Amino acid sequence: MKNLAYLSTFFLGLLLLSCEPMEDIHAEVDAQSSVILGDVAFTMSDEDYDQLDLGYGNFNSVADAKDMIPGLLSSKYPVWGEGSSALVTFNIYAPLRTERSLEVYRVTTADYDANPETARFNNFDDMDQIYDFLDTKYPNPTNRLLVSLTYKFYDGSVNTLNNGFLYNNNTWNFIQGFTDDEYEAMGEGFPNFSSEDEAEEKIPLYLKEKYFFKNRDAGTIESIMYKLYVTDVDDVDEDGRVNDRTTYSYVSYYIYDGVDWGPYTNEVQETVQFGHDGEKWVPDNTIKYRLTSTDIALIESSFEIKYPGPADNVGFFGSFDRRSGSSNYWSDEMLLEAFNVVLDKNNPTAEDGQKYVLTFVIYNGSTVDESMRVIKENAEWVFN
Prior knowledge:
single chain; 3 domains; five-stranded mixed sheet; 16 strands; 34% helix; elongated
């Protein structure tokens, strides 16, 4: 009877001692089972910006976006864990000032004659000649002075051009304008537009044709100077009146989306990748990449002398033999050598700090996927 009482007391104590650790184990298991590995790519919506209290639908800088987007990702994907990634596209506020010309000038014969390089033919044939002229004509320009300049330029033949030159930070900056013929091609009876709305409607269509055979990447911004016939409130023609009408020049900006041109709305798109480090979302440059048949062929040819058996085997089957007892075994160190060859071929300009998650097919008794993480350090790919 005494022994029975002793055993009862023993098991009761064991139960009490075991209760709390078991709860911890279950909690840990539940936590692990609730973590999901996910990948997503999306462009932020109005609702996303609102959630971050960004009513204007943009960030002030990429740095601000990197600080704020992790919180958004935690909210959108609360159960995603380590190894998850998100490629997020967002807007950055990047305003460009629209200028109105303060000087309108047509180069005269006397101007050409004043320079020995242009005196003989009375035209420019080199952009440096134009900048030299501007420095002489406007020796002390105010910052952001815009000169709408009409001049003759020889490039196989002599053409009369009207382009803008904006003085900014001690430098003259060229701004593309339109010739009289180009205004006519856009349906204008005079070398100007009737309204700003008309300019914004016609210029993108003309830019698409103008740059059709010239390489322009998506996101390219072009500054364009165009002319309007408006009330001369600033007496640009210097006739002493401000209630007459004359031609003013304006600068506006247009952005290329890869297909069409459109008015630049003071926003540019940026894309940043974020990764989950097990605790939180952080900006991450990790590239997830699956080895291709081309990569396997490269590995086979690169290691056929150093590792003839493994190289021939992976080239034939397309999978790395990961059975440690096999004569065709690929060790971790051998795989890292192979990855260096592949990544140096595929991404030769990768900078130190670039990360990859490489997925490849292995054979370990059955054919399955395996993944390894690498990072570039001191110009070499190492395990991360």
